[in-house]
Amino acid sequence: MIDRLRTNPISLRIWYPRLVEDASFARLLRQLQRIRADRVYLFDNGYMDNFQLAPATLAERLPVLTKRIAQLRRAGLRAGINSGATVGHVGDMQGAERLLDLDWWVARNGATLPGIACPLGRRFLRWMETYFRRLAETGALEIFIDDDFRLHNHGGPSRGDWGCFCGLHLTAMTKRTGRALSRAALAAEIARCAPGRISEEWIALWKANFRDLLARIEKVVHAVNPRIRLGLMPVQNFIRDFGEDFLREAIRVVSVGHRPLLRTHDYHGLPHEMFPGSGLAAKRTAPPEAEHVVEIENLAHNVHECQRSPRTTRYAILSALAVGMGGAAPTFGDSERDMPWEQAYWDMFRANDRFFRAVANLTLRDTTLRGIPIRHRAYQRQVRYMDCRENVWSDALREHPDSLAAHFGVAYQWDAHPVWLLGELPSTLTREELAAVLNRGAVIDVAALQCLRRLGYGEQLGVEPGDLVRYRRGHRFLPHPLNGTSGGDINALRAPFPVFRLIADPSRYEEVTEFVSWTGRRIAGGILVQKEGPGRNVILPHALCLVGDDATGIMNTQYRRLMRRLLAHCLGEPLKLRIETPPRLAPYYFERTDGAVIVTLLNGYYDDVYGFDLVFGDGARLARKKVYRVMPDGRIQRRPTLRLRAAADGACRLRIDSRNALKNCDVLTLLLAA
Ligand SMILES: [Zn+2]
Ligand SMILES: [Zn+2]
Hints:
By secondary structure, the chain is of the alpha/beta class. About 30% of the residues lie in helices and about 25% in strands. Helix 6 packs across helix 8 (about 195-225), helix 9 (about 235-240) packs across helix 10 (about 245-255) and helix 12 packs parallel to helix 14 (about 355-365). It is globular and about 75 Å long.
């Protein structure tokens, strides 16, 4: 089992240019020792040359990497390599096409994207074998295969997305489907993102290709040194496109007897974000013994032009540790040379060493995270929301399903019911799966409803989006008894905001809200619920991703309560409460095998929080436990002023006083034990 008190949960990633000069490397090594680092990942590239390395460039860099890895080992650090690119990240990387002779990726519109290789190309596959063999020869003990093998993010939706459409790919598809489609016809079919023979074969082709690539890499690397751990980097796109089963298979192919190693995606976003990337999805999917290190990006290009300060870097790391990921791999500083201002980051790492270890260890060992109910595949990070009346497409950045726990400020005991269908549906959902979800009952937002109708489920659902009505300030959803929010209106939408008039058979659906103007005039019905089963679907007349406060995106209390009622309605049973917090906090609830409960609370907002109650549903189990807190120095200390007290309905409550305030941009970790 991984012990994070004895091993450092932080493994920094260092760009290649920082390794070249002896003096620069010596400074780096001193800093690493000062922060008690025991593992680092060396990039074989810099940020400025983040593409396929040509043979000559690689040959120049290998001796440097080999020498630094040996020096690190002598200093007691384990060194791994982060390969800069496999397929390549984005097209048009200047000069790439002059340096490597590969078949390049061809976009949907027929444009060649030099800098991204077509992964079916023989020369590419042979080059990957050479490249990874060379990396293995450096003495690295861990090698990460980069996250650029995916259908998306290769140069924008109109160009590099949905995969490579070169001659090799067209031929391979003709062979699989028995139908010769033109590039335009194939691209149009794939971009429809609808289940069907063509898209199933497309995904199967890419999986077979990736399986082949991984098997080749595994073979050449372990021929050099069987002790090398090969790591995968499953980003959201990868899991969405290829599915969780395939991730499991990919892990098996590269791990061969080693503890699986996964680097998942950062919580890309602004400093106050609290939305996990692919980490929790990968953790659910990977075998329990796997080691996870969450990528913490800290360059302007990756965090929405907002470089993280030492404080927000700390928060991003703690956010990963607080959900039980157990490790983080941050970058920080300048990719080309060391800068005086970087000292503040080194100081932060040193000051938080014991705290990071304690939080990581407590949430990682013998624990099960409860109450994160939403399957990754039922929700996409990036969707296109169509305003069909005005025929305007706009991209909305969608958060990960696990972040719904943060929206609700509450965690319930659920199994992984796929009860959400939100936004454009992922291409890995098959027709059978979709039919099963609809039969069981789901919360369906209007974007998913449009998608389902395109796929031919209109009849089964018996509801369609009619006119578009603009939500403006002052418009409200009036509640219905079902939502039990006697407190007042649901005024939770951002304005202006598209809401659809839903057209449904009144014998099959009932309204649970009414959409009215500020004078109370009825504009449209609001949310619909299906009256009879088997599935009791709930239809939202708007896209769920856009619900929330204009500034923060946080749902208000009334809307969150309504969503809980609707979910209970879908599931046909009341939800069992695990923990409830004030709305802005994200609670994570772990059960440990010895009966203890661990709670981590994230506060990503610029305000300290105290003087509130945590409500725990399982009072019978918890009411007599003592409360301990992970202190900034890493000690786990009994806190006499934190006392659990029994409450109504078998719940119990815990008052968080000012002495135990949850600071802004911070995490509070509590242990409830005998
Ligand atoms: Zn990346
Ligand atoms: Zn191709």
